[in-house]
Design a protein that fits this description.
Helix 4 packs across helix 5 and helix 6 crosses helix 7. 29% of the residues lie in helices and 17% in strands. The protein is globular, with a radius of gyration of 23 Å. The chain folds into two domains: 141 residues, Lyase, Ornithine Decarboxylase, Chain A, domain 1, CATH 2.40.37; 210 residues, TIM Barrel (Alpha-Beta Barrel), CATH 3.20.20. A seven-stranded parallel beta sheet has the order 2-3-4-5-6-7-8, with helices on one face. By secondary structure, it is α/β, with parallel strands linked by helices.
């Protein structure tokens, strides 16, 4: 199958970059030194590749992610790095044979873990990022409450999220050291074997935690890609098709309209990045408008990279309510979750591309009205990636998750 035959917008993963990212991280943090965070990709197919690279213990952000990972056979050691006030569903996952540890930072979260059937917890400590976590000096009290409730306390966790994207490496290292000093002080009060922290931005400079919760390294994004010291390559992009062009006139540079807009790209981090440097400067609701030297003809393929692929339109909240109801029925019937948020929600298929040269195929011109109808029938992109745009590239595609929807995606 050639890339120019894909329905666009298509979310693509480049196989070579993905495998190199896995290899680099496996060499830097082998085995239990890394506890990959699956919230970055929300795909058990990619999590299985991480497990094959030696990283079999995972971090999750939501209960549904824990359920999906366990249902996919990846429940050897799952850490829910978030507090919950109803751990009943987590208790069912534990009963089914998975090992689940949940974060606690208060009496209420300790009681919820105990009541829900959880056996192991980790004390979440605020190390400087104003989010969840108890004060370092209060960590010992939380651990005592947990042990008094019959829970095993595995250690402490904290996240230096406010320094992971600091451009200067020395400043990032200094900020990380300050945060870890707080976490290690809490660990002295709590005990346990685990000191869990970090992310992709601090995986190399955080030498104090004994496990790092990096996740974005697998696919990368434009925010982490701006850090000069990270060796990981961008493996994710959204492929689109130019559907209309306007020629330059006077001082107006001209522009091209691509079928990748706000319904396919999130802008909560920054503008999307244009790998071919045609100058993507504006996102509108349905289309992406690229300006610059007008070298994009109608029918040409164009890719963009964004920090997050999601569905941010106004109907998202209502759709989420319907999705939660469907998943509630699946849960009541004892079936694993079929689909969760983020990139997985956008995906119908997962593809991994291995580009190789092939003769180009003449692009088909499509009218805007016809294209808009296609977008209504095929709202969400597919998951996969290739950096190379245009006809003339073929790919051997491997379907990584059961079609037509992600069945055990997280």
């Amino acid at each position: 199958m050639t890339i120019d035959r894909l329905q666009t917008p298509a979310l693509l993963v480049e196989k070579a970059a993905l495998e190199e990212n896995l290899r680099l991280m496996s060499a830097a943090l082998p085995g239990a030194r890394l506890r990959p965070h699956v919230k970055a990709h929300k795909s058990t197919a990619l999590a299985k590749l991480q497990a094959a690279a030696g990283h079999r213990h995972f971090t999750c952000a939501t209960i549904r992610e824990v359920e999906g990972m366990a249902a996919a056979g990846l429940g050897e050691d799952l850490l829910l790095a978030n507090e919950v006030l109803d751990a009943t569903r987590l208790g069912l996952v534990v009963t089914a044979g998975a090992r689940v540890t949940v974060a606690v930072d208060s009496r209420a979260t300790v009681e919820a873990a105990s009541a829900g059937g959880i056996h192991e917890v980790i004390v979440d400590v605020n190390v400087g990022l104003p989010r969840c976590g108890c004060a370092p000096e209060d960590a010992g009290r939380i651990a005592d409450l947990a042990r008094a409730s019959g829970l095993a306390v595995r250690g402490v966790m904290g996240y230096e999220g406010h320094v992971v994207a600091v451009p200067d490496v020395d400043a990032r290292r200094t900020g990380t050291e300050e945060c870890m000093a707080r976490l290690l002080a809490a660990h002295e009060l709590v005990g346990g074997d685990i000191v869990s922290a970090g992310g992709t931005g601090t995986y190399a400079v955080n030498t104090w935690a004994n496990e790092i919760q990096a996740g974005s390294y697998v696919l990368m994004d434009t925010a982490y890609g701006a850090l000069p010291d990270l060796p990981f390559a961008a493996a994710l992009s959204v492929l689109g098709t130019v559907i209309s062009t306007t020629a330059p006139a006077g001082e107006i540079p001209g522009w091209a309209v691509v079928d990748v807009g706000l319904k396919s790209l999130g802008m909560d981090q920054r503008q999307p990045d244009d790998p071919r440097r045609h100058g993507v400067v504006l996102l509108r609701r349905a289309h992406d408008v690229a300006t610059g030297r007008l070298r994009l003809g109608v029918g040409r393929r164009q890719s963009a990279r964004a920090a997050r692929a999601r569905r941010p339109d106004g109907r998202a909240a209502r759709a989420d309510v319907r999705r939660r109801r469907r998943e509630g029925r699946r849960h009541a019937a004892g079936r694993p979750p079929r689909l969760v948020g983020g990139a997985a929600r956008l995906a119908r298929h997962v593809f991994v591309a291995s580009p190789s040269p092939c003769p180009p195929r003449a692009p088909e011109r499509r009218e805007c009205g016809e294209h808009e109808g296609d977008r209504q029938r095929h709202k969400y992109p597919k998951l996969g990636r290739s950096h190379v745009e245009g006809g003339g590239i073929t790919a051997s595609w491997k379907r990584a998750v059961v079609a037509p929807r992600l069945q055990h995606a997280v």
